Amino acid sequence: MADLGVTIAGLRLDHRLYHFRLAYSGFEHAHVVLGGESFVALAEGLQNALWSLGGVPREHRTDSLSAAFRNLDAAAQEDLTRRYEALCAHYGMTPTRNNTGLAHENGSVEGPHGHLKRAIADALLLRTSTDFPDLTTYRTFVDELVGRRNARQTKRIDSERAVLARLPERRSCDYEQVSVRVSSAGGFRLRKVFYTVPSRLIGHTLRVRLYDDRLDVFVGGSHLFTLPRGRAHPDGRHDQVVDYHHVIHALRRKPMALLNLVYRDRLFPRAPYRHAFEALRASLPERQACRIAVDLLALAHDRGCEAELAECLAVELAAKRLPDLAALRARFAPDPAAIPHVNVALGSLASYESLLDAATTGEAA
C-alpha cells in the first residue's frame, strides 16, 4: 500500500493490508499490517475477519507464504508452520496453499486485491487528503470502506453465513511472547529496537506480548502498559521507540546528556520541540540550550500540556523568537481560581469531653 502515499500526522505509513475474502458471497475484511508477512499479522488479521464474519469456513487458503518464511532457518520455518496449523485447527479449518508462482490459483482473491486497493485510492481522492491524525482513524477509514462494499452483497453473505461452522468460545493466540530484562539505560532491546520504560523497572524481567503494531508489557500477570511496536531500518540499522515521560526525570538531573543521546530525535514528542532545541543551540551555549529544552519537556510532562505547549513553541519560532520559559510556566501553571478553597472547622476539645461523658453515662445505665 506504500504507493498510495498514506501518512499519519505527516509521517509516511509503510504498511500492507491483510485481505480476507469468501469466494462465493464476496464478503471481505481488511486489516492494516505495519510489518511484513508474519504469523502474528496473519493470525490477527484472520481472526479479526472470522469474528467479524460470525462464522468459520471449512477451508482457509493462502498463497505460498514465501515472504513469511524468508530469512528463517529450518527450525523457525517448522515452528511457523506448526503454529499456523494449530491456528487453523483451533477454528476447525483445513489449511491449503496455492503453488509457488501460480497466483491464478487464488483468482477469487487476487483480482479483488486490486479492486480493493483502487477503491481505497478513489476514496482518498474524494477525501482530498491522504494524511490521517492517527493510525486508529486510518483503520476506521478502511473498515468503513470495506463495510460499504459488503453492504452490496448482503443477501449472498447471509446465505453463505448460514452454512458456516460456529466460532470457538475464544480467540486463539495472535501474538508472540518473549521475556526481556530492563537494562541500566532504562529500557530493553527487542528485534533490533530499543524501547524505553519507566526507570522503576530497571533490573526487572518483563514479559512482552509482541503484536503486529504494539507491545503489551507485563510483570508477572499484571499488565503495565502498551508500547507502539518499532522495527529496524531496511538496511539493518537499529531503531528506538522512546517516550520522554520515561526518561524526563533522569534528564532533569543531567540535562547535558540530551546533547549526545543516541535516540535524541525520537525523544521529542512533536516537531516544535525538536525545532525549539535546534533554535536554542544556534543562539545559546550548549549547556543553557540543553537545560531549557529539558525544562520544556518537563513542563509538558508535569502539566499535561504537550499539544498546547507545542502550538505555543511553533508560534514563537515562526516569529523568530526563542521560547520564554518563565512566560510558558506562568501560562500553563494551575489556575488559582480553579482550585477550590476548603474551610476546615476544627472542633473544640470540650466536645470530645462531652462524648466521653455520654459514653460513661451509657455504660452506667
From TrEMBL:
Residue ranges of the TM segments: none
Domain (Integrase catalytic): residue spans on this chain: 1-176
A Pfam family of this chain: Mu-transpos_C_2
UniProt-listed PROSITE patterns: INTEGRASE
Source superkingdom: Bacteria
InterPro entries xrefs: Integrase_cat-core (IPR001584), IstA-like_C (IPR054353), RNaseH-like_sf (IPR012337)
Name assigned to this protein: Integrase catalytic domain-containing protein
